[in-house]
Structures are given as structure tokens and as C-alpha cells.
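Figure S7 source data.
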Amino acid sequence: MQRAAQPDVTAALERACTALRERALPVTLQRRALLEAFLGRTDHPTVDTLHADVGRAYAGINRATVYRTLETLVELGLASRVAQTGSACRYDPCVERHHHLVCERCGTIEDLFDAQFDALRAPRPPSGFAVRDFSVLFRGLCARCARRRSKAHYDA
Ligand SMILES: [Zn+2]
Ligand SMILES: [Zn+2]
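C-alpha cells for the predicted zinc ion complex:
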């Protein structure tokens, strides 16, 4: 079963603002705009993507603020980092269990909600590694890149 993520931005925004205030991070207009922009997204933006987006409306916002806010949300359990080595960290405002489809060509990351993968049993590795959480990450080509590739194939 698959469904599209429909983030409830208003509720998430209030939760995030309250949590940040409790951590003594003032919820300035800029930071609120940043939260609003981030919590409504499903494309797993990097610090730079978000900084560029919010910077269009709030020119004063600096990259360190974006970074610190996102990292604080992660610490508070209100966002997560999508595990991806070798490229800029991607942040995810959806903390419900879900999985990811990563396009190796364009870097798009799609959410996948699928009860079958939610139900995977976490292993107990012999190394003694204690699993806290898990999600499944599939690599491949997004529909757009796959179309482009087959078109290139025919054109050749
Ligand atoms: Zn792609
Ligand atoms: Zn996600």
C-alpha cells in the first residue's frame, strides 16, 4: 500500500516552534519562515537548497541559522537526516516511518510508505550493534531520468 505524504504543516509548525523555544532558540520571523518552508516539503532539501529558497523572501537569513535550526529539529526528533554518504546531507521533516527511493542520476529522493517494509524485523548483528531504528533505501532511476535514458537509447 502506498500513499503520498500529506504533511500537516500547521500542526508540525506549532510543535516545532514550541520545541525550539524550549531549547531557548528564539522563533524569529525568519526562523518561522524557514520552518514553514521546510516542514511543507517532501523533497528532502539540503541546507543550501533551503537557504536559497528562504533567502529569496528573507534576504537576511544566514546559512548557519538554517543549519542550526535543522540540526536542532533532528536532535528533538522532529526531523531526520536521510542517510546518504558522499553528498550533502538531506533533511526530512517526516518522522513517521517511511522509506526512500533515491535517484542515482539527479539525486531526487522520493518517499515510500509501505507497510511491508515497515514490518521488517531488525537484525541482531553478531557485532553487538544495537539497532535503534531503520528505514529502507532503494537506489535507481526516477521516472523522469528513466524516460530520458530510454529516449536517449532510441535516439542513438
Ligand atoms: Zn532522476
Ligand atoms: Zn522521507
